[in-house]
Structures are given as structure tokens and as C-alpha cells.
Batch of 2 targets.
Target 1
Amino acid sequence: MRADQVRKIFDGYAVLRGISLDVARGELISIIGPSGCGKSTFLRCLNFLEIPDSGTVDIAGVTITRTGGRWTRQEEDAAHRLRAHVGMVFQSFNLFPHRTVLDNVMLAPVRVKRMPADEARAEALALLDKVGLSAMATRYPDTLSGGQQQRAAIARALAMRPDVMLYDEPTSALDPELAEEVLSVMRTLDNEGMTQLVVTHDMRFARAASDRVVFMDGGEIVEADDPDRLFVAPEDPRTRRFLRSVL
Amino acid sequence: MVLLLALAVTFLPVASHAAPLRWASDAEANVPFVFHDPADQSRLTGYEYEIAQAIARRLGRQTQFVQNDWDGLIPGLQRGLYDMVIDGIEITPEHEQGVLFSRPYYMTTERITVRRDQQGLDTLAALHGHVVGTLKDTTAERMLQADPSIRIRSYEEETNAYTDLKNGRLDAVLLDGTIALYYGSPDPDLKLVGAPIGQVAYGVAFAQGNSVLRDQVNAALDGMMRDGELHRILARWKLWTPAMAALTGDASTPEIAPDAWDHYRAATAPTAGWRARFDRYVSFLPLLLHGALLTFAVSACAMVLAVGLGLALALMRRYGPRWLGALATLYVEIVRGTPLLIQILFIFYALPGIGLRLSPFVAGVLALGMNYAAYEAENYRAGLQSVARGQIEAAIALNMTHFQALRFVVVPQAVRMVIPVMTNDFISLLKDSSLVSVITLTELSQTYVRLSSTYYDYFGTGLLIGVAYLLLGLPFVRLARMAEARFHTGRQRQGHI
């Protein structure tokens, strides 16, 4: 996975000022930085929930290069192909409240991939088992705790068999012990070789679980390094200031 | 659904090449012209009904009766819904501008009716300064308009005029002798006074240019006058008058028993005792059932249309391209800004002008459905807005197309949210469906008008009809309760986040 010179302007304000990042297969990368630094926007540009104004995104062989101008039908088609390789998890879970947990997980495989319902159900149950939610399959999302909901959301994203998982502050809405349930699922996936990008405020997790940590500020990547180096001996004064304020 | 389709087919006009003579009248409480036999509501009767049958017999044609509202009779003729109208239509210069008339088949005069104890109001001049009732758009009405001091109350139904006279809301009623004889004279509280006033001629009405049929009918009427058939019919209804003798040159006075008059008087005589009353109500049930079925069919079909079209409009406004959204907004504003009654009449009577002929049933469903779609669209728009933005994002991230995201994620949630409001709308649609009676559909409300004015019984019949509406609405009330209960628990359950 590769992003090259990704730029995004909101109302004349440059939110992303040319972000480039290469991610190797199986890497777990944490993206940290102060609020408003553009880290969530960058993540959302990777699967084109936000449309970058310029730059290139390449995921699993699908390359989309933007050079300004309107978002075209062809580009949306390309984005559709690209999203087939990308799963995403949101801060507020965004489970579909009118469907059971099992239906949440089955919906996209059945409707998008046209997978037979039996097969999709078997796979969904296996995924729910993997995230520890077998017992919750027939429950509605709003009867679950936040940690359970976020694990269901991960199972839902995994059901599309993505090559890359994007997490947008997956534990920010959760109490620490509930957050831990979610983080442990992400560690398991890391062990299985999943490529994962996590925008997070959880410095402990970023330091302990990441292969690399990216520090963003003011719409730029300031520093990207091995967590032990970045947390212990950051090169840039901005990184140092930020880490002092949060640790 | 199959039932609804079957009903829809039933109400479509039958296009036949055997070409029966299609004639129209307003048989709702239209004594003695054309009306439902009080002793057997499924049977049409009336002296004009008999004249129409006699004409058809002489033309060697079958008849097909078309019920239409009084106000719709002439527009329906111009629309080609039927070949002719027989409904005591007065031959006046104004009417002749819109239709073609046969020769007069009946001549009568205007009569004044007052309360039994009233003195002195026995000439047109004596009505000066009084409150006088009549039917709208009649010769009697024009006579009253000649004196500006008379306060005129113009009614649609003659029963209402005479009831108001009895209740003291009117000082007198001026109406055709035929009507006065059947509505005024039998009532013990009322009396006909003074000499006959003026003269009125009734003619069969045809569409402009249909002189072929007009000439055939004239020939038939001639024959009926010559061989005494018209005399016999009128005498049986106690309607043979000196004016008719003068018109037909028939001065004979054969012994003809007024059996039709007697039959009507016997059937409408005030019923003594609750037993007779109960039997009468039981005899209403088939009519009530038919009316209820039609009300239900119209409402249900209109609801399906309203939900589908309303959803499409809401989606166009929220997610469509700008021009499509503007178009949908325009539609909603126009439909919400004009009366439903006008829309129904417009769709049924005006659209044939541009080549779109709809059966009354289809026109009624279309008008109601398109009207309610505008309101539903606003509901759904609110519902769609209340679905969190994150829901669409989650769906897109799962690689759904925008259409799939709407179809599987957003719309189902929006619909759930608006179900309580929707059920309310459906109950009011059920009631608004009574408006389709103006385009010849005899649904529940029209059944009430017919039954109550035939028997002068607004109270008991009203209760029956009310119960029928409540029963029809009950499923929706239950649905609303269930939806509300569900919506409520859904809210309480959100505590975890």
C-alpha cells in the first residue's frame, strides 16, 4: 500500500499538505498527532470516503491518481475496486441498528459480493467467534456494550476479506477495559499478518503494538519511525512537544 | 393484493361493442326522478328511470346506468362517460349552451312549501325579505334571485332543504312541483301553498353534436306520448298534470292507480318500533359492505402509491442531482398548496382533454396517492435526515454502491422512524377517500348520503357508517401503536453508547 503526495483542501484551508507513506504487507502502523492535524482525513482519503484533491493512492494493485478536477464516474468505479481490498472501523462503530449483529456482518458479502447466504452466515459466525461474540449473533447492536459493538464492527469489515484494515480512533469512545477487548483483537490480526493502519490517541497501544508510528501535525507527516525510537528519542521538536503533552 | 386487483378491474368501465345505451343520473336521494327503491336498495326506480327504460326499449337497445354526482353529470357527458343524462334537467338557454336537449318529456311548475302553521307566504311576492331554500342552479333559484331582499339558501340535496324548513332554518322552500309533491306534501309538518308558479320543462341531455341519438330519442318520446305510455308512467307516479295534457294533447283521464307513489309512501312511512328499525338497518348491510370495500380498495391502493412515490420524491430531494431535487420540491409545493378535491376533479375531468382517460377508480387512486405522496415525501425527508451520516459511510466503506447504501441501510432506518407519522396519515387518507364520491364512486360516505336522505334518518345511519370507518381504521391504529412501542424501546436501548 502506498500513498504519494496526497493533498486535501477544505474551504481554502489545506488539511493535507502532501502526505506520502509506504506500508509493507503485514505492517501495523499507528498514526498519532494533535486534534485537527489531518490524521483522520488522511485515513479517509485512503479509501476515498474523502476525495483527495491531488496525489496517488495505490492499494493492492489498484492505483488512483488525482490531479484536481471533478470526481468522475470512472474514478468512482476505480474507488469501488479499491475499496474491495480495504476494511474500515469507525470511532462511533456505525453498526446498522436495524439489523442483528449477524446480519450486520453478512450484509455486505451477500449484497455486494453476491455470496450465497449459507456461506456468508457460516463465515460471519466464524468471524464473530474470532472476535468473541458468538453469543451475541442474534442481538441488536444497541443491546451491546461499546467494546462488543466495536468488535462486531471489526468482524463486519473482515467479512469482506480486506487486505488492509483502517481504524479511525477505534477506542476513543470506550472505557479503558472495553478498549482492551478491541485492541487485543487488533493484535491477533497483526499476528495473522493483516496490514493495519490505526489513527489513535492510545499511546500505550501505539508504542507496544505498532511496527511503525507516524506523527502528523499541521497536515504533514513530521516523523515516522520505529515506536521505540520515536517515543524515546524523537528527532523533531514538534514531536517532542506533543509527546510531552500526552504522556 | 389479488383482491385489490380484482376490485380495480371490476371498476374499470367495460368497453363493449354491443353498445348498450349508457345513461347517467344522480340516483342519490333523487326522488321521484331516479333513486334506489327504499324497499330494496339494490333496485333502481323512479319515473325518469322508467322513461329511460321505455326509450331504450323503443330504440331496441340494452341500458347501462351510470351513477354520477349532480355536479358531474354534464362534465361526464362532455367527457363521453355516457351517451345521455336524464335527471330532471331543465331546458334553459344557459343549459343549452353546454348540451343538446331532446324535446321536453315533462312539464311542471314551481311550488312553495312552508311549515304547517305558517300563514301568508303563498306567492313569490310574499317571500319578500324571507329566508327561502331551493336547489342550486335551477329555475326556482333564478326566480328567487329576482328579489334581492330574499335570502336564498341553495342546497345540493332536496332532503336537506325540507329538513331545514322543518327545523326552522328556512321560512319557505321553492322547488319544482315534482319534488314538492314527494318531499313537501307527505310531511305532516309541512304544506304546499299558493298557486303553481311559472313553468319548467325537463329534457334529456346529450353531448353537443350528438344529434343522431337526440333525433332517435325524440322519435321514441313522440311515440310514448302518442300511445299513452308516458301518460301511464306519470300517472303511476301521481305526476300527470294539466301542463302535460297540454304538452301531449292527451286530454284523456284513464283509470290508472298511482301504485308507484303508493309503494314509495309505504316504504318510507316512519317505522314504528325498534324491531322494524333494526330490520331496516340489517337491510343496509350489503350496501355498507360494498361501500366499505370500495373505500378500503381506494385507500389501500392510494397508500401503496403514496409510499412509493413519496419515497422516490424524498430521495430525489436529498440525494438526486440539483435539477431533479428542484423538480421534486416543485411537485411537493404544488400538490400541498392546492385542494385535494380540485386535484380529483382535475385528474378525472380535465386529463381526458389531453388524451388521458382514466376510469373513476384509477383516477381516484391516482389523485389520492399523488396527493398523499407529497406529504409522505416530507416525512421521509425528515426520516432520511435523521439517519446518521456515519451509516452511509460505513456502507460505502463496505464497498456498497450509493444505491445499495440507501436501499439496505438508510431507507429501512428512515422508514422505521416515520412509521408512527405514516400510520396517522393513512388513517386520514382513509377518511379523505370520501372525496372520490365526486367522480361517481359510491364509497362509504356516499352510501351514508344515499341511505340517510332516503329515510330521513341521519342519526342511526350515521352511527352505522361511523362504526364502519372505525373498523376500517382499526388495523392502522394498531399498527401505529406497535410501531410506537417499538420506536420507544429502541430509544431506551441506546443507553450504552
Target 2
Amino acid sequence: MALVEISNVHKSFGEVEVLRGIDLTVEKGEIVTIIGRSGSGKSTLLRCINGLEQINGGEIKVAGELVHSRSTDLRKLREHVGIVFQQFNLFPHMTVARNITLAPVLTGKIAKGDAARELARKVLAQVGLEEKIDAYPGQLSGGQQQRVAIARCLAMSPYLMLFDEVTSALDPELVGEVLKVMEDLATQGMTMILVTHEMNFARNVASKLVFMHAGMVHEEGRPADLFANPATPELANFISSVR
Amino acid sequence: MRGFTISDFLTMLAAVQWTATLVVLALAFGAPLALLLARMCTGRSRIARLVATGILQLVQGVPVLGLLMFFYFGMPVFLGIKVPALVSVGAAFTIFTAAFLGEIWRGGIQAVHVAQGEAAACLGLTRWQTFRHVIAPQAFRIALPATVGFLVQLIKNTSLASVVGFVELARAGQLASAATFQPLLSYACVAAIYFALCFPLTLWSRSLEDKLNGAR
Amino acid sequence: MLQLNFNQLWRYQDEFLHGMSLTLLLTLVATVAGLAIGLAGAAAAGSRFAALRLLVRSYVEVIRNTPALIQLFLIFFVLPYAGLRLPPVYAAATALSIYMGAYATEIIRGGLASIPRSQVEAGQCLGLTRWQVFRHVILPPALRNIYPSITSQIVLLLLGTSLASQVSAPELFHAAAFVESRTFRSFEVYAVVCAIYFTLVLAFRLAFAGIGRIAFRWPTGR
């Protein structure tokens, strides 16, 4: 059974149909990169996977459980599906440690106090920011904030992580440090779905590349194949435009 | 004792002219003072800033009722002559307007000042030219919603003039209440008239605010 | 021409002190009750029921667009009709609470709305319940956003308690009228009363600034 099974998903915002029948499966341990022009529905698809958006047709299963079903406890599901946003969305009024441990403590995964602090230290080490444990988000650079956001996700020990254009809001010189953390995660076997404009990452790290166009999966396959031999003029155009 | 009739209501409506008179007086004398205070607060002279800020803080730190009494009893003491209630009440609301509008306009000027002032200085404008052509028009736009909002405060606060016996809308309501023994009806009518005066201004202020935020 | 005489007023220290304590008590009661009304009002303003939203809207607009003095008179005269013969202080406290509640509703509603939707989503995505999101993610920054407006509204309320004198509640301004009737030093009495109010306002502002600095330490911006 695949970890994520998306079949024939439709999604509209008012009159506009953003997703027009998406089919996609993601196996455990896969790193799937979704590329495409803005407005092609990439981010919407990602937000549908953890139930941030409702869908109008089709179904999405994560670990065999239907995401958009009344009987599904979305809250429980989200404890295992982490998402990192373009704008970091750290809580400005909490220290880094508190940002990280808030959810594990409140959902009863871990006790308050020393254990929580130990957890914060552990995941911060994974993103290389142990020394910032008592800083506030407002005191960090964009790249550091995004790494903390990734650490916050890791603290929930998710089996799937979603990345929504996580480097798009960063100054160019800060992109590298975030991509490095994501590469490390990839080598450790984390299942990841990313929406990104970083073509080098898509080419070198991803195990599967998905090109979305006009609300559909236009092409998918191994990154090396798709970059070398795009089957459709849309993908060929896209590749040459971002190069 | 007599019943509450339509003529009581008409008397109240007529009293609105005295409420309006107070508002116009307060604005006519208070607005120039407010502009002066706002400019002093944002000017270069330290002493002027200190004095103006002090006046703003002082007036905003006492009840309007206190301000009224201060002028009502103070003007005869200081001037040595009896003055009509309209003068002392008008003076109190002038000072009230000067302080609160001054605060609003100071905020408006400061919102524009820093970045734009430097740009204008680079263009070789004098300080007055900078204020007149660069800062004032933008500050006016920024401060307009709050200025209209202040009008509502002013109108509502003129009701306090009734305390020293000045016959405006609120006082007319008190008189009607005393004459008819219908306090509820009397004050409800007064409240309705105030609402009819203030609510359109509130809506206007809000739409100006939305426009300002939308334009940003 | 100037014949100011403050000496006689010293004998009335007690009257001023009593008045001042009632002024502070009225401020405290109306602040607490007003904030409670404001919280409920802000919650109702975001309700699913259109009728409830309309009710809150009307309450806020009516209170904010009519003079507090008239509201006070209305309440003062309404209560007996409802069978409540209460001392003037209670009527004043009720009116001031209702008044404060309308402003607090508007301020709190705005403060909650100022928290970006993305913060709520981030909380949801970490598996937090609705209440946990409200308590830990929305509330603290919202409190910081509304703190300046709420505290200046409390200062305005402090000054506004002077209206209670008009229904004979024996607060500071009423004490002034009493002393005036005994001494006939009208101007001096009101000058002193204004000075007392100003000192109270100054103390309030300083206290609020200090509390704000302690309560909200996290850096803003970015």
C-alpha cells in the first residue's frame, strides 16, 4: 500500500477549477517534487493532502485513511503529517524551544520540562541551530526561521512531510542552508512531498518529479528522464523558462 | 403635568442648532490651534515640542466636565467680568478640540515625516514648502478618518454643556423630561437624534478608513 | 483681580479622598465588566448566527454614537421601571460597564481579526485543538495588539466616571460640587479636581506602560 494515494481529485475556488482530476501515488521513502507555473494548482494540492483544503471530488488517502471523511480525526492525522510553509508561520510570541515543544506537549506526546527541552535540543541539532534554542523568531534570519519551522515539524516525528515553496520567501543567500537541511532529511529516508522552484533540488535529490499544468498532472517520472527528454511541449517550455 | 407631545420633540430638534453652534465654534477656533500644536509637536524646537506635548497631555488628562467647569468658573476669575455661557462653554470645547485634533494630526504628520521629509529636503525645498506641498496633503489623507471620527466625539461631548445650564440638545431633553415626567421617552428621543447626527459620520469615517487601507 | 484661595480646601481632604476612591472603584468595576462584555461581544460578532451578529453590531453602534451622559440618564430612569430601586452608584456602574463593553467589543474583535489566518493554520497543522489554537496561538499576540487601545480606553473610562456625578453618585466630581457649595471657591475647587484627575491619569499611563513592557517581551517585526 502506498503512503499517499490521490485519485481523481477535483477542487474549485468558486467558479475556478484549480484541480481537475489529479492522480498521484507516493511510496514510503519517496521524495516527490512538484513543479509547474504559478496557478497550476501545486500548493492547493499540497494543502489538500493534510486537509487544509476541502475537495470537491475524488479521494485522498494517507496511510490508508481517507483525509476528507467525516469519520477521520484530522487532528490525529496531522500529528503525523508535517507541513512547512513559505512564510515559516512560527509563533512570534514564543521562544524557539516553545515553538517546537508546544504541540508535542499539548498533544500529550511528551512531558513538559526537561524531556521537552531535550526534544527541542535534539531536533534543533538536526537543523544545526542548537544555539538558538532560547531566541525569539523575530531575532532570527529568514533561513534560520525556516529551519526552526522544519525542526518544529520533526518534533512531532511525522512519517510524511510537506514543503510548500519553503525557499521562495528567502533572500537568495539564505536558500542554501534550508535546502541542505532538506537534503539531510532525504538521505535519512523521510517521505517528502515538495512544491518548489529549486530545479537543482528537483533534479538531484528528488526520486520522482511531477509536472503540473492547468490543474492536472501533465507528466511524471524520474527527474533525470524528464529534464533530459520532456514528452510534452509544455514541460519543455517550462524547463527552458526556469533555466 | 402634561403628556409628551410632538411639540416637545420639535423643541428638541430646534435645540440641535445650539449643539451645532458649539461644534462649529469649537472647530473654527480649535482646528487652527490643533494645527499649531501638531506642528509644534513635530517641529525642530525642543521647547516648542515640550510645551505642545505638555498641553496635549494636560487637556487629555482631565475630564471634559472638568474642562467645562474650569472655563465656566475660571474665565470670570481671570478676566474679571462675567461672560455668557456660550463663550465659556465654547472656549472649553475649543481647547478640547485643539488637544484631541492636535494629537490626531500629530500622528498623521509623523506618519509621513521621516521618509518623505528627507526626500523633499534633497529636492531643495524649504521647510515650509516641504510641509505645505509634501507632508500636509499626505498627512491630511492619513488623518482624515480619525478626524471625522473625532467629530462624533465632539458632538457627543457637547451634551456636557447641559451641566452648566447651556440649552442644547441634551439640556432640552432634561427640560422635556422635567416638564412631562416622561424621562424614558424624552431621553430616548434625545439619544435617537444624537444617533442620527453621529452614525452617518461614523459610517463615513469607516469608509474613509477602508479606502485608505485599500490604497496602501 | 486675581483672588485665588486654595487654603479653605484643605479641610475637605476627606471628601476628596472618598470621592477619589469611588472614582477608582467605578473605573475598576466598569473595566472588568466591560472587558467581560467585550470578550463575549467579540465572540458573538464572529458567530454563525446572523441575528446574534446583528444584535452585537447594533449594541456597539448605538452606544458609540450616543452621548454617555444620555445613556446614563436612560439607565438611571429605566432601572426603577424594571423594579430595581438601586442607589445611583449602581446605575452609574451599570451604565459605564455597558459603555465600556461596546468599545471593548470593537477593540477585541479587531485584535482577534488582526491575527493572520496562516498562524491558525500552522496551529491546526500541528494537531492542536480549536481551543488550544485560540489559547496558545491567537490570544497572546492578539492581547499585545489590543493592549494600547484597551489601556487608552480605560484612561478615557477613568475620566468618564465623572459623569456619575450627574446622577448624584458621590465620586470625585460630585465631591467637588459638595465642597464648592460649602466654600464658594468654585474655580479653585475644579482646578484642584482637574489636577487630581490628571495625576491619576498619569499614574495609570505609567502603570500600563510598565505592565506592557513586562507582559509582552517578544520582539515584533519581520
